Amino acid sequence: MDDERPARFEAVYRETYGQITAYVARRCGSPQDAADVVAETFAIAWRRMDDMPPGQQATLWLYGVARKVLAAHRRGEVRRQARSAELDAELADLYGDSPDSRVELGAIAQALGTLPDDDRELLALVAWEGLDRAEIATTLGLSRNAVRIRLYRARRRLSRALAEAGVRFTAESRLVPAERTS
Amino acid sequence: MKNIDGIEAMRPLARVEPGKPGGRPSGAGARTLLASITAEEPGAAAAEPHRARRYGPRRLALGLAAVAVLATGVVVGPSLLKDGRGTDPAYAVTKDANGIVYVKVRDFHDAAGLTRQLKDLGVPAVVDYVPEGQQCREPRATYVTDVPRGLYYAPTNIPGEEGGPGWQMQIDTRRFKDGQTFVWTIGESGTSTILMNDPVAPCVLVPADPPKPRPDFLDYRVATTEGHSLAGYRVEGKTVGEVVPEIEKRGLKVTYMIIEPYPGNPGGYSMDPARQDIPVGKDWVVWEAREPRRSPGEVRLVVTDKRYDRSPLGSPED
């Protein structure tokens, strides 16, 4: 057994925990589900340490793992496994703020809901995780060209859905402050 | 994004604001999770499944309050455990001026002595030694669900150190509330430290539960990637009739997973366990070949009964 594994894993865990929990919380309806998915994602990462790329690539790889775990979770294939009240509570904190409930946002969410899962995921990786095309390609195991084309189509479908939902944008549309990291 | 477009419009929908982290890795829940994960052998070593499984996430599966878990893979360096005379005490419990108790344990047998020492230093703990293959009969008490923050740091391994099965943790004795007991079970196969509400039943040893099976998809991996049984052989989009002879030629047994793509094949599929024994035709289409992680010799083909313009599995699996 390779003795440096626990240390290396711990380093990756600390480095990526914030991003992975954010990714999962943005896609899970409840903190309990999020706790299951986060736990399973890192458990798989630990078991597949040998496949985990070094450096920044590890984050992208983990997004890919989390995505598959989420899909499996939605199919009911992930058992409830790693439940600790503290983990639930910490993730519940992320759900605590009452979301911005302006009508406009509800309409955007609805429009988004009409898109295929793949479109939504692509768009979310850009909008929420802030990934660029190359990073998305790595995360999803696609070529950059495939990402470019799919993203183009997904954006077009989103625009159409938004138009149908009556959402319009003006220059004054509120923009979320970019990139505040801690 | 230069234009205000749909992507920009999505940003306020994010539950965790874009650019911000979600949870903190320093939180107690995050640390407990880390400890429970690394308590398993990395790679879920097939050679030692019992060790990899027991007391890992399973102990957490009970829906508990804070549970800190570790197995024999978590080690404390011998230097930390030596007392002033150069011998290794079975355990060491010390308290600093701030009321923080530091615990190091390397031999699990003297649970009564450890309980006494902890109590002397203000930790309301009950410690039981649990031999391999056994566990305390549950439930022993109800679990404290609102564990005070900072009460204790889960036992963790110390990177870069080698040695026996020992571990260490720290506890802030000022944060205990009346009517709570820290219930520890320690043994060669793992440790759990759970805060419970009084009264706590004594530990009655019973045989340990067998490990729960993992969901199927975790036990299978893609067979066509390097180093696996079908390395270099492409199956996606071929028919069952094409692929099966190729696999059988290699002395492997073929099984099937029959999937049903979502309507319109947007990516994603469902699998109906009740419809898995339908005979698979030679003209069915193969999307992926998987193999069991632990028992070689089988290849499981992911198939559909008709052809689709693209793989229902979405992007290639790892």
Automatic annotation (TrEMBL), chain A:
Protein's GO biological process: DNA-templated transcription initiation
Domain RNA polymerase sigma factor 70 region 4 type stretches: 106-158
Alphabetical list of Gene3D superfamilies matching this protein: 1.10.1740.10, Winged helix-like DNA-binding domain superfamily/Winged helix DNA-binding domain
A GO MF label: sigma factor activity
Pfam families (alphabetical): Sigma70_r2, Sigma70_r4_2
Domain RNA polymerase sigma-70 region: 13-78
The keyword Repeat appears for this protein: no
UniProtKB keywords: DNA-binding, Sigma factor, Transcription, Transcription regulation
Family (UniProt): Belongs to the sigma-70 factor family. ECF subfamily.
UniProt xrefs under PANTHER family: RNA POLYMERASE ECF-TYPE SIGMA FACTO, RNA POLYMERASE SIGMA FACTOR HI_1459-RELATED
Protein name from the UniProt record: RNA polymerase sigma-70 factor, ECF subfamily
TrEMBL record, chain B:
Keywords: Membrane, Transmembrane, Transmembrane helix
Membrane-spanning residues: 60-81
Domain of life: Bacteria
Record's protein name: Uncharacterized protein
Organism in which the protein naturally occurs: Streptosporangium canum
Upper taxonomic lineage: Bacteria, Bacillati, Actinomycetota, Actinomycetes, Streptosporangiales
